[in-house]
Amino acid sequence: MTPNDISQRLRATLAEFVADWGVDADITESTRIAADLEFDSIDVIQFVIVMEVAFGTRNLGFQNLLMQDGRYVDDLTVGQIETFLAGRLATV
Amino acid sequence: MTRTLLLGLDGATFTLLGRFLDGTDEDGVVMPYLAQLVREGFSATLTSTNHPLTPPAWTSVMTGRTPGHHGIFDFVRFEDMGDDMFFTLYDSRDIRCETIWEIASRQGKSVVSLNFPMMSPPPVVNGSLIPGFVSWKHLRRNMHPDTLFDRIKTFPDFDPKELSWDFERESKIGEVMYDDELYAWVEKHLPRDRQWSNIGQRLLDEDKPDLFALMLDGTDKIQHQAWHVLDPLLWHGEGTDAAKAVRRMVLQYYRDVDGYIRDLHAAAPDAHVVIVSDHGFTGAMKVVRINMYLEQLGHLFWRPSDGSAAAERRDMSNFANLNWTRTTAFCPTPSSNGIVIRRKSEACPAGVAPEDYDAFRTRLIADLLSLADPVTGEKVIQQVLTREQAFPGAAMEHCPDLTLILCDHGFVSVRKREPAVMDRPLAMGTHHPDGIFIMAGPGVAPCGVRGAGGRLAIVDVTAIVAHSLGLPVPQDFEGEVPERLFDAAWLAAHPVVIGPVTRSTAAAAAAQAAQDPEDGQREEMLAQLRLLGYLED
Fold first, then answer.
1. pTM of the model
2. ipTM of this predicted complex?
3. Does A26 touch chain B if contact means CB atoms closer than 8 Å?
4. A73 at the B interface (CB within 8 A)?
5. Are B214 and B264 in contact (CB under 8 A)?
6. Dist CA B114 CA B119 (whole Å)
7. What sign results for the dihedral spanned by CA atoms A57, A58, A59, A63?
8. N or C: which end of chain B has fewer CB within 10 A?
């Protein structure tokens, strides 16, 4: 799967994920899931499930993206998630 | 035609319902229809899972297996990263055993399953399934079939925000609320179960599924917070006006529930109606900050705080916030009532070496059992179960090493606060192993007196439902259909048949593959996992 394929699948999945939420934001590389798409912690957990289903594996190791220096990160950009997925999908 | 109505009342207990049914309460008979079912049917005490908690217990109802086999032990699972701990939620993909919804579906029975936990993402069933414990933002994606949301949104009064799980609201469970605040909190739970009942009634009327199952969980939530106005030992009708108002609101909730049961049964009067809880309820008076005690024992080290608001929020959360490079034993969540003993490895040098494990665990059990209230001297932990005692089975390695049963059946706290043991200002509702089983319908042997059916195990429910549907009881179910439940004529015409074992789930196959079996078997399992969508080709 190429980085472009990953990006397209991620953004399509994310757009469907927030479709009912009434948020008004384009999904670009710089879109922040908390600040722009109004994710809360439960949404992050649900999104991990959706991504694992979308990419066909539970071994993506999202904990390495979501935790930094012992804390859950406050926010993530779409670009950060794409970079993470590209790295992980190259190894699983 | 609907053969079986399985109605779940989360946390229902005869301790309360007994008075609501008998009319011995100051408010008279609160649940007349349930009282009639008890009089005309069979009722018993239903023993919950060894740790009586909603996710493992309802999963046992759904699978007919105990947690050591089905693999769900708590709301939360965690992954030990050595220098950190990642907490997330269990979901349906973690269940290692087939559910009764799937077992019935693959044998041609139609199913409606509403509001049962651990059902997200939803399994494919021959009918409709809406999981419980899902926020409104995720309802549409989590329904089966994927057109169901558009169907139910046409139902009168449908409101996804009322129907769904409000994580912020429910996170207040366990906190002391003044009665004015509690009144408003309880009030918000009434429309939620009304929404579930409305949807259930429409799906039952229109689809007439062979198996209709609905779980109502307002009972549990309300009992947690309003126990002081409900417990017959605590409420004598002399509370404040605010407390009396809370009690009136709570009783209205139970009257509503009684009406839902009546109306659902009226839609399928020839069906078996099976009413069960996942666990019972009682009152807890102790606060037991178990991680504070583990710190005193030298097994646990807190994560230093930088004083920030984020650090403060993290410290007050219900997930242990520890120095993972030094901690040897910890309680991960209040709901677990469990102690995890970390194993020594390259990633986790602070863990206990394999050769020291048995001695460490034995010493820790003794230390836990010696924990006492500093004021009264009373021991606050009545029993410590090892994982072999609490959750035997193939999934046992994922449960806590020790499970604590407190003197009052309360849940522990994982917060960093002094003292380790103290009394609560107000009794808090907590889970008790003794729940309820009530069944009525064709061939059910009436036992007349509430609870006179004795004691059933929670895994018996699944066997009873399978039998009621006219299905064989799978050989690997751990429960049974008690002979005393039916009259002789029914059993002669409908003998209990034991059938083939249930099918493996993706979670079970993944766990098996992870054990690194022989190459030939491994290839076979990997092929199965690909088929189930667990692995990419």
1. 0.93
2. 0.89
3. no
4. no
5. yes
6. 9
7. positive
8. C
Mean pLDDT of B429-444: 98
- Contacts with B301 (C-beta within 8 Å, 6 or more apart), sequence order: B295, B322, B323, B326, B327
d(CA B17, CA B19): 5
Task: Decide if B140 and A63 are in contact by the 8 Å CB cutoff.
Answer: no
Q: What is the DSSP letter of B412?
A: P
Facing A63 at nearest CB: one of B79, B324, B510: B79
d(CA B420, CA B417): 7
Q: How far apart are CA B537 and CA B531, in angstroms?
A: 10
pLDDT tens digit string along B209-237?
Answer: 999 999 999 999 999 999 999 998 888 88
Q: What is the CA radius of gyration of chain B?
A: 23
| One-character DSSP codes across B245-313 | HHHHHHHHHHHHHHHHHHHHHHHSTTSEEEEE-SSEEEEEEEEEBHHHHHHHTTS--BPPP-S-HHHHH
Q: Report the alpha-carbon distance of residue B286 to residue B378 in Å, rounded.
A: 11
Q: Which residues of B touch A66 (CB under 8 A)?
A: 86
Find, among B152, B125, B134, the residue nearest to B213 by Cα: B125
The string of DSSP letters for A1-67 reads --HHHHHHHHHHHHHHHTTTTT------TT-BTTTTT---HHHHHHHHHHHHHHTT-S-S-THHHHE
Interatomic CA distance for residues B391 and B398, integer angstroms: 10
B322: CB partners within 8 A, 6+ apart = B85, B291, B300, B301, B302, B303, B330
Contact list, B531 vs chain A (CB under 8 Å): none
Contact A56 B533 (CB under 8 A): yes
- Contacts for B122 with CB less than 8 Å, ≥ 6 apart: B92, B129, B130, B131, B142, B143, B144
Residue with the bigger pLDDT between B163 and B505: it is B163
Residues of chain B neighbouring A42 (CB-CB closer than 8 A): 135, 167
Q: Are B535 and A57 an interchain contact pair (Cβ–Cβ within 8 Å)? A: yes
pLDDT in tens, B471-512: 999 999 999 999 999 999 999 999 999 999 999 888 888 887
Q: Is the CB of residue A67 less than 8 Å away from at least one CB of chain B? A: yes
